[in-house]
Amino acid sequence: MAGREKSLRGQVFDKIRSDILKGRYQQGDELVECTIGKELGVSRTPVREAIRQLELEGLVRLVPNKGAFVNGISARDVTDIYLIRSRLEGLCARMAVENITPEQLEAMEEAIVLSDYHAKKEHYEQVCEMDGKFHKLLYEASGSRMLSHTLSDFHQYVQRVRQVSIMNRMRLNKSGSEHTEILEAIKSKNADLAEQVAARHIFNTVENLKHFNLEEILREEYGKENDNNGKN
């Protein structure tokens, strides 16, 4: 029973967080426990616990005597996430050198081939899907559940920004070649190089994002002002 309750709490948390990140809940929207509970067919308890966990992640703010309100993701959050990812994905690639399986190598190679195919046809949605698959496989190849979980969360936080970045043709081509560099470094068992190219790959995305108006992208995603979010 305890395991089932824990699973239920996790499902509710994942659903609410996904709705926030997809923009279903806009910045400033109130999360009403009883309403969400009815929508999901659960009691208020797992909803309340999920909201508290979302507050710890910064996606929700609790206002005494008023309720829980959506924070969303700010432009500063996006930049911070990518900078943190650059370090963690470097570590991930280093660990993958020792832990990756032949099946994972093959799957990553397939993701690169399919990504190149769709890139030539300008099928951006499919390219984004293959990009996500490549990184997911890399996380799993590290052999670290904790690292994989953390990086997967960060990946979800910036879904919309990733899509916009990938639609930049110049970045699209470079990203594909960088994936190949990462995989080749892992295959050659060069841990130092794998860490270096994986970290640089994410850092290059940060540089590419400077060409975009992140505040505008995030306003389109969440429907309200995000640029004041996180400012002191």
TrEMBL record:
CDD domains for the chain: WHTH_GntR
SUPFAM superfamilies: GntR ligand-binding domain-like, Winged helix' DNA-binding domain
PANTHER family listed in its UniProt record: GLUCONATE OPERON TRANSCRIPTIONAL REPRESSOR (PTHR43537:SF24), TRANSCRIPTIONAL REGULATOR, GNTR FAMILY (PTHR43537)
All copies of domain HTH gntR-type, residue ranges: 6-73
Keyword terms: DNA-binding, Transcription, Transcription regulation
Organism: Blautia parvula
Pfam families: FCD, GntR
Protein name: GntR family transcriptional regulator
